[in-house]
């Protein structure tokens, strides 16, 4: 296949000492996974550059290189060299698939962080992307303490150490993000206390950064702007049909991006005009009625735009190789749609703003906070209050008052 891709230059690629013997197999492996010739050719053209990087770092035997080390050869920002980064990822996956990469045993810290991540998924029902963020903070703490070298450091962990660690997290980090990280840290400390690794109560032994109340209020669009955003998505092409169906579901039902990404073909019952949404946070799925508008948009996408695939996910990427659209992918699509549309929104926003907008829209229609919370998949009314607290002037219209806390109304 390499000869077909590079009729005149294939000998030059085959002559590469490290990668040359693998390139033909790598090309076929990529083709089997749906990459087209342009994509494969673009990647393999970067093989001499990658070979030079490998030799420069003294990586003369790919069988002795762990995958993590190989992935470090990607450009600092993937946009700096798309094809080089793509080649590195393809090569790493190819070698891993063939069992040709060195397997490194996880460290003590990684094993503990993995147990924590499993707890977050199975017990707390957090989305995979959220688990990753929590795990990252856990690993930072374990590295900060030198846990891999001395696991006993957990037995002497105290508040001053945690204060110092939180200050280290603050570098290059805004107040709101630092507050999130502090929350992740408290969660990990409670997990460790539950396992008997540390004394109980350390999760309350350090101060969280204080963020002004109005600095992190949920943002929402006027409902007219939501409708204008949806109407502005052209459905003449496959991409528009897919995007319109996705964002209509979010705006109609208040779905999370993770719930859109997890939606399967088997979750849709056309006969009963219903669909099932997996809601890990409440440890139970919810069945929602499929409105005529949402059903028509889904049917239009599935019949005329969704690529043929063995994947059961409803929403797929349109570029080859076809795969389920991830949460991050949905967020990227939304950002591009906002940038290309007529809406003027300050700052960085994601599809969650449609969820906030629906909550406000329903509140203004005198829908009770309890019903709104059930639709959004909240465990408690207090969670819904967090979404709606910016609109306190509307709360008197709701059928259920929000709970109060130490700082007044939520």
Question: What secondary-structure arrangement, pairings included, does this model have?
Answer:
Blueprint: H1 2-5, H2 10-14, H3 20-32, H4 37-44, H5 47-56, H6 67-71, H7 82-97, H8 108-122, H9 128-145, H10 159-169, H11 175-194, H12 223-231, H13 238-253, H14 257-262, E1 268-269, E2 274-277, E3 286-289, H15 292-304, H16 327-340, H17 352-364, H18 369-376, H19 381-388, H20 392-395, E4 404-405, E5 408-409
Antiparallel strand pairs: 1-2, 2-3, 4-5
Helix pairs in contact: 3-4, 4-7, 8-9, 9-11, 13-15, 13-17, 18-19
Structure description:
This protein is mostly helical. It folds into 3 domains: 2-97, no CATH class; 108-208, DNA polymerase, domain 1, CATH 1.10.150; 233-340, Intergrase catalytic core (hpI Integrase, Chain A), CATH 1.10.443.10. It has 20 helices and 5 strands. A 3-stranded antiparallel β-sheet has the order 1-2-3. The chain has a two-stranded antiparallel sheet with strand order 4-5. It is flat. The termini are far apart. This is Putative integrase/recombinase. InterPro entries: CB (IPR044068), DNA_brk_join_enz (IPR011010), Integrase-like_cat_sf (IPR013762), Integrase_catalytic (IPR002104), Integrase_recombinase_N (IPR010998), Tyrosine_recombinase_XerCD (IPR050090). Keywords: DNA recombination, DNA-binding. It comes from uncultured bacterial symbiont of Discodermia dissoluta.
What global shape is seen?
flat
CATH architecture of the largest domain: Orthogonal Bundle
Q: Kindly estimate the percentage of residues that lie in beta strands according to DSSP.
A: under 5%
Order of helices and strands: HHHHHHHHHHHHHHEEEHHHHHHEE
Terminal Cα span: 63 Å
Tally of domains? 3
| Name of the CATH homologous superfamily of the largest domain | Intergrase catalytic core
Indicate the low-confidence ranges by residue numbers: 393-410
- Give me the side-by-side strand order of the main sheet: 1-2-3
* The top level CATH class name of the largest domain: Mainly Alpha
User: What is the C-alpha radius of gyration, as a whole number of Å?
Assistant: 25 Å
The proportion of residues forming helix, as a percent range, comes to 40-55%
Largest sheet: 3 strands, antiparallel
| Coarse structural class | mainly alpha
Mean pLDDT: 82
CATH topology of the largest domain: hpI Integrase, Chain A
Count every helix, treating DSSP H or I runs of 4 or more residues as helices.
Answer: 20
Q: How many extended strands?
A: 5
């Amino acid at each position: 296949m390499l000869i077909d891709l590079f009729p005149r230059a294939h000998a030059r690629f085959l002559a590469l000492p490290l990668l040359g013997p693998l390139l033909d197999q790598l090309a076929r492996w990529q083709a089997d996974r749906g990459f087209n010739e342009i994509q494969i050719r673009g990647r393999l053209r970067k093989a001499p550059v990658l070979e030079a990087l490998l030799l420069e770092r003294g990586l003369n035997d790919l069988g002795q290189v762990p995958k993590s080390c190989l992935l470090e050869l990607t450009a600092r920002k993937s946009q700096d060299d798309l094809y080089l980064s793509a080649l590195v990822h393809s090569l790493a996956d190819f070698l891993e698939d063939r069992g040709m990469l060195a397997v490194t045993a996880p460290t003590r810290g990684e094993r503990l962080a993995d147990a924590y991540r499993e707890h977050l998924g199975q017990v707390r029902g957090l989305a995979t992307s959220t688990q990753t963020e929590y795990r990252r903070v856990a690993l930072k703490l374990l590295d900060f303490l030198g846990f891999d070298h001395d696991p006993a450091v957990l037995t002497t962990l105290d508040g001053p150490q945690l204060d110092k660690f939180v200050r280290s997290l603050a570098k290059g980090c805004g107040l709101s993000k630092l507050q999130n990280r502090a929350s992740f840290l408290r969660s990990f400390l409670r997990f460790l206390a539950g396992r008997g690794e540390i004394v109980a109560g350390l999760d309350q032994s350090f101060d969280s950064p204080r963020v002004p109340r109005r600095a992190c209020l949920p943002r929402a669009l006027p409902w007219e702007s939501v409708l204008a955003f949806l109407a502005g998505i052209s459905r003449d092409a496959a991409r528009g049909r897919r995007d319109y169906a996705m964002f209509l579901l979010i705006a109609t039902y208040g779905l999370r991006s993770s719930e859109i990404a997890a939606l399967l073909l088997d979750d849709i019952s056309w006969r009963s005009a219903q669909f099932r949404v997996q809601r890990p946070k409440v440890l139970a799925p919810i069945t929602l009625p499929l409105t005529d508008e949402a059903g028509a948009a889904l049917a239009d996408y599935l019949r005329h735009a969704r690529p043929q695939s063995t994947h059961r996910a409803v929403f797929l990427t349109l570029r080859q190789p076809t795969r389920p659209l991830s949460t991050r992918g949905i967020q990227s699509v939304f950002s591009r749609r906002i940038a290309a549309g007529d809406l003027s929104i300050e700052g960085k926003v994601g599809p969650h703003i449609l969820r906030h907008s629906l909550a406000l829209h329903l509140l203004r229609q005198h829908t009770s906070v309890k019903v709104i919370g059930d639709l959004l998949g909240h465990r408690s009314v207090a969670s819904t209050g967090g979404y709606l607290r910016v609109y306190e002037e509307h709360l008197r219209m709701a059928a259920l008052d929000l709970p109060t806390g130490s700082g007044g109304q939520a």
